[in-house]
Write a structure and sequence with these properties.
With 318 residues, the chain is α/β, with parallel strands linked by helices. It has one domain: Aldolase class I (TIM Barrel), CATH 3.20.20.70. Helix content is 34%, strand content 11%. It binds iron/sulfur cluster (2 copies).
């Protein structure tokens, strides 16, 4: 039994799925960046993408699944998918909330000049990575020149109404530590970001999500290379918080890969650990409600979601 499962047993925690309210779709692994800690291992040379057939099947299932309210589209850079705009328009026709996990620099790539306007016109919520308000840390983690372009993209989004007080166009920023540590307090950091980004660049945003680095893929290799893996695992384990576990995203979210396989979250997807049980892909279910009450695949990387204030794709969980 993994250390994480032992911990849940000891805490007598309830571990099954609740109703699925969010779908997270990884529609492409292609990205214009190749960040140091990317758990998807995305880069400009990746070619995996969701086919039209898979996208249409998801729409068909959504039409049978009234409990799903939010579609969180991720990648790679999802805007690079040739069906991105068609799919977003289909989702919005169904009155679903749509999130675009946007890396900001994509908005300046060739062919993407009107993507920001498209997102605003369809009232898509933008969730954008900005691991620091200083250029040194951002460029270290995400590549040279990324900070400057990200700032220009945030200014452009602000101009369209994103992140402004009282605006319906929501703009969330995502912070994750540059190294093997836990994020600071989300509310305190949000205050710092708000002050610094406004003073330095006049930038406004809706809120900040803090995310703990999950020890898988590129971040795991980095920890191993620096001989810091066990130290990081100890930090996560010692900070296990039952309250944070109660809010883990996998209880109400499912993650779907480009081939239509179903996972408990994007991290399990990258580890190729599909949902336990037989409902493993979008052709094996008739609606997403079929997944309620099912077991979740937990392993030791899950300690990253339950340490301290907890972590999920929408920030702290406790
Ligand atoms: S921008 Fe996001 S998807 Fe692209 S390489 Fe960086 S972390 Fe990965
Ligand atoms: S890493 Fe584990 S705890 Fe976190 S969302 Fe995925 S399955 Fe749940």
């Amino acid at each position: 039994m993994s250390r994480f499962l032992e911990k849940l047993k000891e805490a007598k925690a309830s571990v099954n799925r609740l109703e699925t309210t969010t779908l997270q779709l990884n529609i492409t692994k292609k990205c214009n960046q190749a960040c140091r800690h990317c758990h998807v291992e995305s880069s400009p040379i990746r070619t995996e993408k969701m086919s039209r057939e898979v996208l249409e099947r998801i729409l068909e299932l959504l039409d049978q699944s009234s409990e799903v309210q939010t579609i969180d589209i991720t990648g790679g850079a999802p805007e690079l998918h040739s069906d991105f705009r068609w799919f977003v328009a289909e989702l919005r026709k169904r009155n679903l909330q749509v999130i675009d996990r946007c890396n900001l620099t994509i908005l300046f790539e060739l062919g993407q000049e009107d993507t920001a306007e498209f997102l605003a016109a369809h009232q898509v919520q933008v969730v954008a990575s900005l691991p620091c308000y200083s250029s040194k840390n951002v460029d270290y983690q995400r590549g040279k020149g990324v900070f400057g372009k990200s700032i220009d993209a945030l200014k452009m989004l602000n101009k369209l109404g994103y992140g402004k007080p009282q605006s319906e166009l929501e703009l969330y920023l995502v912070y994750n530590p540059t190294g093997a540590s836990l994020p600071p307090s989300q509310s305190k950091l949000e205050e710092d970001y708000r002050k610094k980004l406004y003073e330095d660049f006049g930038i406004e945003f809706t809120g900040l999500f803090t995310i703990t680095n999950v020890p898988i893929k590129r971040f795991l290799f980095d920890l191993k290379r620096k001989n810091k893996l066990e130290e990081y695992m100890q930090l996560l384990i010692e900070n296990f918080n039952l309250k944070a576990f109660e809010g883990v995203m996998c209880r109400s979210l499912v993650s779907i890969d480009h081939e239509g396989q179903i996972y408990d979250c994007d991290f399990n997807q990258m580890l190729e650990l599909p949902v336990p049980g037989i409902k493993k892909n979008i052709w094996a279910i008739e609606s997403f409600s079929a997944l309620s009450g099912e077991k979740i695949f937990f392993d030791d990387h899950c300690f990253a979601c339950t340490a301290g204030a907890g972590s999920s794709c929408t920030g702290a969980t406790a």
